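Hi support team,

I'm filing this because I wasn't sure whether my run with zinc ion finished correctly. The job status page said complete, but I'd like someone to confirm that the output block is well-formed before I use it downstream. Pasting the exact inputs I used:
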Amino acid sequence: MARKFLLCFHDFSVWNFQKVAPILENLKDLIGAPFSVLVIPDTEKASPEAVQEFRDTLFRLQSEGFELALHGYKHKAEFSQGRSYMGIIGMNLTHGEAEFAGLSEYESSRLLQQGLSAWKSLLDKKPEAFIPPTWYSNKFLPGQVRALGLLYEDRFSITSAAGRRYASAVTSFAGIPDFLMKPAFKFGELILQLPVGLPRFALHPVDFPERETAVRNLLRTALGSGRRLAFYRDL
Ligand SMILES: [Zn+2]
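And here is everything the job wrote out:
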């Protein structure tokens, strides 16, 4: 396998698409190619006009070659739903964003189905991958995702729909304290140099514009590293 890296823009939603879509286009111009966008599919509380505009934007991105992946359902959850102890810890650490953390088999499957049906109301193609919000999961979710024929990603690895597993270190700048920001960018450069594995860059709307310059420099380093930008669907 030629050396590759993944660029994954997280948390694209009906609430932020107007602001984020131009950021995606700018990054596409920098890289010279489209990349992976992780979509939060829930539009329950949005106006019909916003939903329609969001849908149009998703179709436009798709037609420009961006690949779209499913990123949970609401990216937010309540404490109930019978979470395990570790699940409650996961929820606490992420301010309630880890909606799949520690769920029971039944609740996990139900939430995954809700995510998928929200996706289907927006798009007619199936997602290229499923990535649980914040990567916190439960022991049933990887199997449930693969049973749907979708690629599954956790914090340290990616498993294709066919069951092939890739070690994959990820660097992400969202939700980390300022004093760790420089080390996080250093880590991003480091994982490009690892002899094995598929480095991943996880970007979030909150990275822009605050960390835009550093992000663009890191992407230039990635492009200059001899690695090729890959899609989930190539795995
Ligand atoms: Zn997310």
